[in-house]
Amino acid sequence: MKTLLTGGAGYIGTHTAVELLQNGHEVVIYDNFSNSHPEAVRRVEKITGQKIKTVQGDVREQSTLEAAIREHSIDSVVHLAGKKAVGESVAHPVDYFDNNVNGTLVLLRAMQATGLRKLVFSSSATVYGVPQYLPYDEAHPTSAMNPYGRSKLMVEEILSDLYHSDPSWSLAVLRYFNPIGAHSSGWIGEDPAGIPNNLLPYIAQVAVGRRDAVQVFGSDYPTPDGTGVRDYIHVMDLARGHVKALEKLQSQQSPELLTLNLGTGQGHSVLDVIHAFEAACKKTIPYVLADRRPGDLASYYAAPHAAQQTLGWQAQYDLTTMCADAWRWQSQNPNGYLS
Ligand code: WQD
User: Fold this and answer.
1) Cα(294)–Cα(292) distance, rounded to whole angstroms?
2) Which pLDDT tens digit goes with each residue over 313-325?
């Protein structure tokens, strides 16, 4: 089975590539390297001992996609390419809809033109919006809170309409909670450009001395310690979820549309994460309590059972391992792939 991995050089993509290759899948990485490094692909080769075919292309280029699919005899697609920063999406909504929504439409056109019908799509728990109850299960109502979330929700709706118009498609929509951590080798990991938006890379950069202190956004939330609670999931667990979803689509005789949470079901506060990271790096992480970040929710976490029932998948790693692996990556590569 040969899978095209769009966004395959990115944080989720590299870890998913490792997991696919180590489970006997052939992988072609398709990436425009707008927010990733060719070095990341070389590191995946180093981990797996396999040479990886890579196509430099944008998901909005239908002819490049079709050529890649034909040349490499691709039979399924894991679609991770897209933009992912909430704040940037508010400032540049057109870029977000162009990359995330138009990019997916062009990919679907390329798949239609080449006869492909199996797609795993990278969605987000952000599509649930303000919790009406917790944990979020897949039946929780959806609503977007910003252009990034809206772009993910729009694609989910497009995929649902596509499936209902033409049930020859097999589609898996994976709603990620908060992916953190790194491959246990320390050779690949999260390497955000500029100032990290997300909590874990920020903490890791403080630990390695690149930044002074973590700002804790809000300490008056109605949570046990007043700081925001999220469902952090090890990126290797997330990667394994993609492999399971893809294998389910490939093994299934009848087409289907799966929509599944990938989370642990456990909530951890910002202070929990800081303290777990301190234990991992054996340093004190300076932090300051700051105002809430606009648009943030107090608390959310997954009901992870549907993925367990449907895919036999369950997250294995706890917060201690997530932080230990993130620290191994960050300490071995203080400046990311440019180290
Ligand atoms: C986690 C917690 C912050 C930074 C977002 C998107 C989601 C997904 C992941 C894509 C919150 C707090 C953070 C900091 C802090 N997107 N925090 N200081 O906001 O849950 O999810 O990223 O890839 O769709 O919405 O993740 O890591 O930014 O924040 O106190 O410097 O950490 O307030 O409680 P979030 P996050």
Assistant:
1) 6
2) 999 999 999 999 9
Assess whether the C-beta atom of 285 lies below 6 angstroms from ligand 1.
no
Q: What angle do the packed helices 235-251 and 11-22 form, to 10 degrees?
A: 60
* Ligand 1: centre distance to CA 89 (Å): 14
Q: Measured in whole angstroms, how far is the alpha carbon of residue 14 from the centre of its chain?
A: 11
In a domain, 192, yes or no: no
- CATH number of the domain that 160 lies in? 3.40.50.720
Domain count, the chain: 1
Q: Which residues of the chain have pLDDT under 50?
A: none
Check if the beta carbon of residue 202 is closer than 8 Å to that of residue 196: yes
Query: Does the active-site annotation cover 301?
Result: no
118 in a structural domain: yes
Distance CA 152, CA 144 (A): 8
Can you give the pLDDT at residue 254? 73
Residue 164 alpha carbon to ligand 1 centre in Å: 34
Does residue 125 sit within a domain? yes
ipTM for the predicted complex comes to 0.97
Q: Give yes or no for a contact between 233 and 225, defined as CB atoms under 8 angstroms apart.
A: no
Mutate to test the pocket of ligand 1, among 11, 198, 211 (most ligand atoms within 8 A of CB): 198
Q: What is the pLDDT, as a whole number, of residue 177?
A: 98
| Per-residue pLDDT tens digits for 11-62 | 999 999 999 999 999 999 999 999 999 999 999 999 999 999 999 999 999 9
Catalytic residue chosen out of the listed positions 148, 176, 232, 301: 148
> In this predicted structure, what is the pLDDT of residue 253?
72
The angle formed by the CA atoms of residues 126, 268 and 224, to the nearest 5 degrees, is: 110
β-bridge mates for residue 30, sequence order = 6, 55
Parent domain of 30:
2-182+232-265+300-315
Residue 269: its pLDDT value, please? 98
Task: Specify if 30 maps to a domain.
Answer: yes
